[in-house]
């Protein structure tokens, strides 16, 4: 089992940047694919980005490609989501999630993830 604790987020103007962190504890961090999802009010949870267990492959939603970057630091057991050029439509609660997987392509479906962080609010003003 793995526990995920999120930090970061907040309020930023359009065009600004934020970095979210997802710190893992418990089982071996390097065995897990990590994904980021978001949920805006009245909308379903949607995929944002994911990174595989070895950091050799990433997936991104089309809406964030070129603006968001997912990365992981094994020494810190932490995955980061760097968000640049933020838009008002990026406003949502962001969740990180973990799946025990050594697949090359990290999952993009929320149902494939087993452990979730507590969520953190990101608000982008116009």
The portion of residues assigned to helices is under 10%
- How far apart lie the N and C ends? 40 Å
Number of strands: 11
* Radius of gyration, whole Å: 13 Å
Q: β content, as a range?
A: over 45%
Please give the largest β-sheet.
Answer: 7 strands, mixed
Mean pLDDT: 96
Order of helices and strands: EEEEEEEEEEE
- Can you count the helices? 0
Low-pLDDT runs: none
Oligomer: single chain
Q: How would you describe the overall organization of this protein?
A:
By secondary structure, the protein is mostly beta strands. It is 0% helix and 52% strand. It is built from no helices and eleven strands. Strands 2, 4, 5, 6, 9, 10 and 11 form a seven-stranded mixed β-sheet that branches. It has a four-stranded antiparallel β-sheet with strand order 1-3-8-7, with no helix packed on it. Strand 5 and strand 6 (58-60) form a beta hairpin. It starts with a strand and ends with a strand. The relative contact order is 0.32. The model has no long low-confidence stretch (mean pLDDT 96).
Question: TL;DR of this structure?
Answer:
The chain is mostly beta strands and 126 residues long.
List the helices and strands and how they pair.
Layout: E1 2-7, E2 10-13, E3 18-26, E4 32-39, E5 46-51, E6 58-60, E7 68-73, E8 78-83, E9 92-100, E10 115-116, E11 120-125
Q: What key attributes describe this structure?
A:
126 residues, globular, mainly beta, seven-stranded mixed beta sheet, 0% helix
